[in-house]
Amino acid sequence: MMGFVDLHYKLNGGELVNVRMDKLTEQHWQTTNLMLKAGDLLEYFFTYCVTINGQKIDCNTAMVQYALSKPQPVIVPPPLVCPAIEFNQALQGPEKPTLTASAYTVDFLVSSNIDVMGFVDLHYKLNGGEMVNVRMNKLTEQHWQWPNIMMKAGDNLDYFFTYCVTINGLKIDCNTALTTLALPMPIMAPTECVPLDITKGLQMSADGTPSIMFVANAPVEMNFVDVHFRVNGGELVNMRMNKLEETKWALALPHVSRGHHLDVFFTYCYMLPGGGKCDINTQIASATVN
Questions:
Q1: Has domain 87-182 been given CATH number 3.10.350.10?
Q2: Are 190 and 220 in contact (CB under 8 A)?
């Protein structure tokens, strides 16, 4: 029979504390609520009384020291920073998109010196639809490609890339910023007689000869383009321009030099799709040859 069990302890070399332990069973005694923290030193021993053959015997245990170890700091490795690599992205396809879908190819070209590109993934939405995720084809270590995105004039493509690079043996996953690209609608030929959207101006040749340029920004059949101009306020000159392409016309001015002032307007004629001709005069514009 155990008559009692006493606990005697010092915390961090302080005063000796003596407590009668609580009896749970004949063999199990307990003291609770010793307030300890990491780094504390607890020195303790027990005294107890046992009854053997009717005789009570008091006993002591040896001193025990117990040090609560300090927790080791958790070292969080710094996040791997995406390297600032230089790359180009390109969309290849028909130069002038049409209302019929055509195949376009997306290219990802790295110009930085990268040890290894693990992968390049393309993520894109067409016209705000569902996100499509594809692993691009590796052409070289720096050139990755994805073909056959079917697009037509007026379509919008939102896309970005994720890629994995290995630098000094470390694999790093990276994202690019979102890019939005819109394929322009084709310019339609007018169905009635209206002024065309035109681009006009002066262009200097290698030998310093200025040329008057006229470009119609519509797919029309031009009958002629005449230019009417005055040099430094002189007499009006009327000339038929030379056809370079169906909608691009030019006239060289070999007797006009830098610093001369021009007042210019055009008359032009184009064919309507249903037949008939449309004659248009433009307003006078002024320019100085530079």
A1: no
A2: yes
